[in-house]
Amino acid sequence: MPLTNYDPFDGALLVDKPAGPTSHDIVDRLRRRFGIKKVGHAGTLDPNATGLLIMLLGRGTKLSDKLMSADKVYEGTMKFGEATNSYDADGEIVATLPVPPLTVEALNEATAPFVGDLMQAPPMVSAAKVGGVPLYKLARKGVEVERKPRLVHIYTFRFTDYREPIGTFRVACTKGTYVRSLAHDLGQKLGCGAHLATLRRTVSGKFSVNDAVSLPQLLELSAAELAPRVIPFLKLAAAE
After folding, report:
1. What is the domain count for the chain?
2. Do 157 and 118 share a domain, yes or no?
3. Same domain, yes or no: 101 and 43
């Protein structure tokens, strides 16, 4: 059935998110800058994470579940020797331990057991909910609760560089994977602790950050300049 009342702002926009703003901040900025009533996104990035954020506009918001379910690829760095309560650099350091001699080869040997199906519990400092309450709100009160592990799948988890105490890695995984939990769990396995230092999403489903526009550039566009960058609703709905 043909789509009636065609609107050039029904679809998706690929944004290269900078570190700092939340995903919701970017929703709000787009809504206010271009006067688009319905704006959403297909998969949250933590404030200090960068990279591909698929913004959904108008009728595009109806495809949120479809696009959020896509596999993801991330690149980033981990710092060994320090564990934090949030499993990333935003948290408080809860343990500092000496780092054993590590190499890229040794790290990739240690990551091998993480590849495949994996039961992963969300961090206490996360937006996952227990009893309808976000875990981070409980964590702020010093409350720790049992978190139900979820099944995720890790396609690849490889380090490409290591300069003590920082390792550079790439992960391909299913939706809902907490990369900072991978960092924490790897640090526990190595006995020295670790946390996620930086994270960048490069791929979500069929979409790449290489085709995204930076937020500052985006906010400088006029509505007429923005329209050609919107992936139309029908094309989006047909994408596998």
Report:
1. 2
2. yes
3. no
Q: Considering the domain boundaries, does residue 87 fall inside one?
A: yes
Closest CA to 73 of 155, 196, 195, 12: 155
Contact 187, 193 (CB under 8 A): yes
Q: Mark whether 77 and 147 lie in a shared domain.
A: yes
User: Closest Cα partner for 236 from 67, 36, 34, 42?
Assistant: 67
Is 46 a known active-site residue? yes
Q: Point out the catalytic residue in the list 46, 71, 90, 117.
A: 46
Same domain as 101, residue 57: no
pTM of the model: 0.91
Per-residue pLDDT 10s for the chain (240 aa) are 344 566 888 999 999 999 999 899 999 999 999 999 899 999 888 888 999 999 999 999 999 998 999 999 999 999 999 999 889 998 899 999 999 999 999 999 999 999 999 999 877 776 677 777 777 777 677 777 777 888 999 999 999 999 999 999 999 999 989 999 999 999 999 999 999 999 999 999 999 999 999 999 999 999 999 999 999 988 887 765
CA distance 81 to 83: 7
Same domain, 37 and 114: no
